[in-house]
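Annotated sample (chain length 499).
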Amino acid sequence: MNLDELMKESKKRAEEAVEKAQEWTERLPLDPSSENQNSGKNKNRSILQQMEQWVSQTLDSVQDLFPDTSEFTKGLQQKFMDQWELWQEILRDRERYLPVLPIIFRQVARYRKFKKQIENMTEEEQQAKADSFHKKNAQEIVKLCKKQGGAWIKAAQFISCRSDWLPQVYSDILASLQDQAPPASWEAIEQVLNQSLGAQWSQQFESLDHDPIATASIGQVHKGQLRYGPVVALKVQLPKVDQKIKADLRFFQALATLLNDQFEGFDLEQIVKELSKSIVSELDYYNEAGNLTQFFTQYHTQRWDYPILVQDLLTPTTLGMYFIEGKPIRQFLKEVPSAADAVLKELVRSFLKQIFKNRLFHADPHPGNFFVTAQGKIALLDFGAVGRLSEQQAEAYRNVVVALVTEQTDSIDELLADAGFKSPHPEKLRRLLAKERPPEYQGLGRLQYYMEVLRQAKVKMPDNFVLMARVIIVLGGLLKQHNVSLSMMELAQYMMDDS
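Output written by the structure step:
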C-alpha cells in the first residue's frame, strides 16, 4: 500500500470509527446524576465495560490497518483503562472529546508505521517521502482544530511557532489557522459587561457598536465612544470561554500522559504544560494590560504607535484601549506598493531593536497585528504574548542569528553552547550545515532554513530563542512577499541600533 492509499484508507477507517463513537455515546450514561440512580456501582461498572469494549474495538481497527503497531495498540488500551477515572471525568463532555480519540489514535499509529517504512531509505528518499506524509497529516490536524475551535486553534498556533519540535511543513500549514471565530451575540456580550463593569457600565459610553470589529476564540473587540473621552476599542472575553478552554487543556494533559512515550525526543507532557501556561495567561486581561503599559513606556516614539490603556475599563475579562485608526499592513501595501521598502524596513528595524536592545518584544507578529496609521506610523496591536530576554541571552542569541544568517558557522558549536542550546549529535549538525543551502532561502529567510537544520540534528533550543526566531522568520516572509531586500550591512545596523 503506497502513501496515498495509506492516507485514504486511514481517513476512511477514522471516519467509520468516529461514526461508531457518536452512535455509542448516545447510549452511554456518563451523566454524573446516573451515579445516584438505582445501583450506582453497577452502573459505573457497566460504563467501564462499555468503554473498555469501545476502546478495544477502536484499537482493533487501528491494528487491522497498521499491523506493525500491535504493540502500540495493546499498550495504549491498557494505559487508557488504567487512567479510567481521569477519562471518565473528561468524557462527560462526550460529544466534544470522544469522537476525537479514534482520529488521534490513527494519526499516531500511521506515524509509527511510516517511521518503519523509511528506516532503510537514503536521507534524500526519506525527505521526499516525509514531506508528502507530514503535509497530509498537518492538513488533517488543521481540519480537526477548525472543527473543535477554542484551545485547539490556540494549540495549533502555539505548535506552529516551534520549528524545533516538528518539521517545517507543520509550522507552515498550522500557521494558516487564523484565530477567528463566529461572533457571540450582543446579549451574551452584554452579560459579560454587566458582570465585569457593573450594571451601570453603559453610562460610561456615548455609544458602543453591537457588531464586533474583530473576533477570536477567546474574545472579540467592539468599537465605542466614551461619554467624556476618546474613541476606544473594547476587548470582551467570550462567555464561559475560560471553562471551555480549561476543559480542552485537561483533555490535552490526559492525552499527553497517554501518548508521551510514543514520540522519540518529543516530550508531549512538557509541551502541554507550556501550552497551558501560555493560553491561561491570555485568559487574564490584566496580563495583557501590563504588557501594553510596559511597551508604551519603553517604545513610545515618533515612528511607532501603540494603544493607550483605559484603566476604568480594565477587568480580568474586559480591556479598553484608545482606538487606533489605520489599515492592516498588507492592505496598505497593496494600495501603496511603493511604500513597501520604507515600511517593512522600519518594521524589521523596530523588532530587532525590541529583541536585541530593549529585550522586550511582541511575540505574536501576525501581519493582522500591524497597522499603518493616517500619520504614516506603524501601529502594533494585541499584546497577549510578549517575549523577555536577559542581557546575556540577547547577546548570545544575536551571535547565533548573525552566524546563521551570514553563514559563518565555523564556531557554531561554541556559539550554540553559550546560548544554552543542547546538541546531542554535533557531527550530524556540522554535516547538515555544510550542505548547500537552497537558493530560495535568502536574507532573513535563511534563519528559517537553519532552524530546520537544527531540528533535523535534534538540537534542543531555548524556548525564548524559538519565540524570537519565529518573529524574525515572519518578518523575513513579509520582506520576501513584497520583494524588499535587506542587506547584511543593514541587518547588522538594525541589530546594533542604539537610537
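Annotation: DSSP finds 21 helices and twelve strands in the chain.
Annotation: The radius of gyration is 25 Å.
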